[in-house]
Each structure stands twice: as structure tokens, then as C-alpha cells.
């Protein structure tokens, strides 16, 4: 092996490390700078949502460590593809759940329930007013617990938090695995 080949291999390894660590730093920076979802702002769940970003960062760090041990580019390509497909499905399901579980109340987004409370006065008001869900929320001053049960509201919040966690984690894993796939193909590692 000539001196130039040795230096070229060393440069490629250093470049792979820089790209991998840079991707992870990007995930960390993104998790710090990423704004909270509109439905999670100013609620008791905002600390859970911030913890989600920490979880995604830790998971991407573990995947980054795995990139140093697993050098099979076909495996990483399959991991990237599988995680990307899961990310797409999860993202669309998360958006579907947001549309089903939240309502706009003027400038804010409020998580609502799916089970109406058992209140005679509420039922008669709804029948008399014959309002849609968003108009009904405005009629009670934006307080969803006057319309839906607290347990159904909390269930929808927990589902949204879980799906958000899944999306952040899948995105972090995809970034690291895809970067590693590109790096392995660039370096020409064995299949």
C-alpha cells in the first residue's frame, strides 16, 4: 500500500467520523431548537414533550455507536429504508390523530376528547344549538372538559405524545442510519 493510499483511507475514516458526529450534533441541536407542537404549548404536558426530544437524542446516540461496529452497507441501506417507511406511516397517522383530537380555538389549538360528558344541561344545549365541535368549543369558552370527559381528553393527549415520541425517534434514527449508508457507499466498504 502506498503512502497516498494510506493517507486516503485515513482521510475517509476521519471524514466518516466527522459526518456521523455532525449528524448526531444536528439531531441534538434540532431537538433543542425545535419548537413544541402547537397543541403541546402551555400545557402540563410540555415537560413530557421536551423529554421526548431528549429520548430521540439518546436513541440517535446509540445508533451512532452502532455505526462504528456494523459496517455492512446493505444492512444499513435496509435499516434506512425500513425506518423511512415507518417514519412516513407514523407521520401521516400522527397528522390524522391531530386532526381528530384537536380543535382550533381562536389562536390556539386545544386537545379534545372523544367521549361526551353525561350532563343533561350539556345535552340539551347541544341539541338546541346544534353546533359543530369547533363551534361548541367556542360556546363553552374553550374549556374542553365542559364537553368531553377528562379521561378521553387525557387519552388523546397521551396518544399524541406517544406518536410525537415515535416520530422524533424515527427521524433521528433515519438521519443517522442514512448518513451512515451514504458514508459506507462512499468509502466502498464490502457489501
Reconstruct the topology from this structure.
Layout lengths: L2 H31 L12 H24 L3 H29 E4 L2 E4 L8 H10 L3 H7 L10 H38 L4
Descriptive notes:
The chain has one domain. It is 73% helix and 4% strand. The chain has helices at 3-33, 46-69, 73-101, 120-129, 133-139, 150-187; strands at 102-105, 108-111. A two-stranded antiparallel sheet has the order 1-2. It is elongated, with a radius of gyration of 23 Å.
Mean pLDDT: 78
Strand line-up in the sheet with most strands: 1-2
Main sheet overview: 2 strands, antiparallel
Task: Count structural domains.
Answer: 1
Shape: elongated
Overall structural class, as computed from helix and strand content, comes to mainly alpha
Beta-strand content: under 5%
**How many DSSP-defined strands?**
2
- Radius of gyration, whole Å: 23 Å
Low-confidence stretches: none
> How far apart, in Å, are the first and last alpha carbons?
22 Å
Helix percentage range: over 70%
* Helix and strand run: HHHEEHHH
Number of helices: 6
Transmembrane segments: 18-37, 49-68, 74-94, 159-178
Keywords: Membrane, Transmembrane, Transmembrane helix
Identify the notable features of this structure and list them briefly.
single chain; 191 residues; mainly alpha; two-stranded antiparallel sheet; 6 helices; 4% strand
State the gist of this model:
With 191 residues, the protein is mainly α.
